[in-house]
Amino acid sequence: MSMRLLLDRKRRLDAWGRYFASKHEYGHWRSCAVSGVYYIPRIFFDADNFINLLKHGLTNTLNRHTNLCYGVIGKTQSEEAHLYQLATIDWDDVIELQTHGAGHNDANLSQAIGVGHQQLFTEQHRKPGWKIVVLRYYSEQEQESRNQRVDILFFAHHAIADGTGCAAFHKTLSEYLLHQTSHSITETQSVWPYIVPDAIPTPSVVEDIFPLTSVSPLQLTTGCDTYYKPWTSVPPFLASIDSYRTRTKIFSIPFSKVSTILAYCRTRNITFTGLLHAFLLVYLTKKIPSARTFRGSTPLSMRRFTGTSNDEIVDQVSFIDHDWSPDLVSSFRASEEGSDLENEVFLAIASRFHNEVKEEILAIPETGGYGLRFVAGIEDLDKFCHSAVRETKRSVTYEISNVGLVELPKAESEKGK
User: Fold this and answer.
1) 194 and 53, same structural domain?
2) Residue 145, φ and ψ in degrees, nearest 5
3) Do 57 and 183 share a domain, yes or no?
4) Which residue among 165, 199, 233 closes a domain?
5) In terms of domains, do 268 and 131 share one?
6) Residue 166: is its pLDDT beyond 90?
7) What order of strands is seen across the sheet that includes strand 398-399?
8) Is the pLDDT of residue 249 over 60?
9) Over residues 39-58, mean pLDDT
10) Across the chain, what does the average pLDDT equal?
11) CATH code of the domain containing 304
12) Is the pLDDT of residue 228 over 50?
């Protein structure tokens, strides 16, 4: 009987999920994460009241997003990587609470993000492939205010959620927290561990829409330039899987500047992500004078082609690589900061990015997308991902992931502001 239950809990994992399961197994890609800023009313400042509120909100979030009720089991000699439906979810397995006395600052947030990315998801037969880290601040100013700022970081195994999926988690959680803060404290009681219903939907599989047999595999290479390979920093070799460390730095754009930047992009028919590529290339060309070329990578959502809403927690992402030629790199180096020439090259890069992404998106219905073709071209995912952390060269210089504008629900008193 127990064997039957074990088998019944296994769920199919698509090719992209199996790819990330292998990368996670070797410590190469540990999690996808998105942080959210929440403001909690004074009545919930008390630790017990706050935890009850959080438990209630998370219970409702799990009820809505049943994909969070799975662990990710890596490949073994006898079977492929797969999802495993959990029977229960324990509070201590998915929540980490931190308190900081000096008030909010980016250093605390940066450290929490960095440490979170270093950790692996373990014991996935009894723990889910995600967790949240909650940062609360106890300065005098915070205690005297009507609302207390709380930072919540959502970390997910990339086979469970992509960046859009992580943002969807925050949208749902904030909706339930906002709803509950308008009710009495006694109405926020919730029982944990969370009991996973026996019958929950099976996560969708991308190959059911884009069969791998109809996808033309990519010829996997390490650089398209005949003479120069892209600069990709030092070798990624790890002495052990536990020696991995991250260096996180938060770069904030004031909210008052965002509308101006987006308006600038619209008038020049470029995107904000393209602008970020150009900014980063300016930095790299000046910082790494010996490099002749760089290669960037950008994730692309497949949801418009699978019919999946942006409000769902899934991993349905492709990607596209961009090779920045020696000519472009040289042009940046030859230009003075703030000059017309620098601005010209800047816009050329952002425009080229826009055109490459547009071309890729138009081709996805027929080709399945660059990312799926990439995975289809890998004969042995396990071997490929293992070698990726022991090669002398990375395949790309950097990646820029932009989940776009995410609006969280507002209280009635805040609407219209």
Assistant:
1) yes
2) -85, 165
3) yes
4) 199
5) no
6) yes
7) 317-324, 294-301, 398-399
8) yes
9) 90
10) 85
11) 3.30.559
12) yes
pLDDT at 404: 74
Q: Do both 108 and 253 map to the same domain?
A: no
List the beta bridge partners of residue 148.
40
pLDDT at 148: 85
319 domain-assigned:
yes
Same domain, 269 and 127: no
Tokens of 81: 């990587």
Residue 104: closest CA among 132, 64, 135, 82? 135
pLDDT at 389: 64
Residues 209-222, mean pLDDT to the nearest whole number = 63
Range of the structural domain that residue 175 is part of = 2-199
Same domain, 116 and 84: yes
Q: If we measure between CA atoms, which residue out of 92, 94, 99 comes closest to residue 149?
A: 99
Q: How far apart are CA 117 and CA 194, in angstroms?
A: 25
pTM for the full model? 0.90
Q: What is the pLDDT of residue 336?
A: 85
Q: In residues, how long is the chain?
A: 417
Q: What is the pLDDT of residue 219?
A: 52
Burial of 344 (0-12, 13-18, 19+ CB in 10 A): exposed
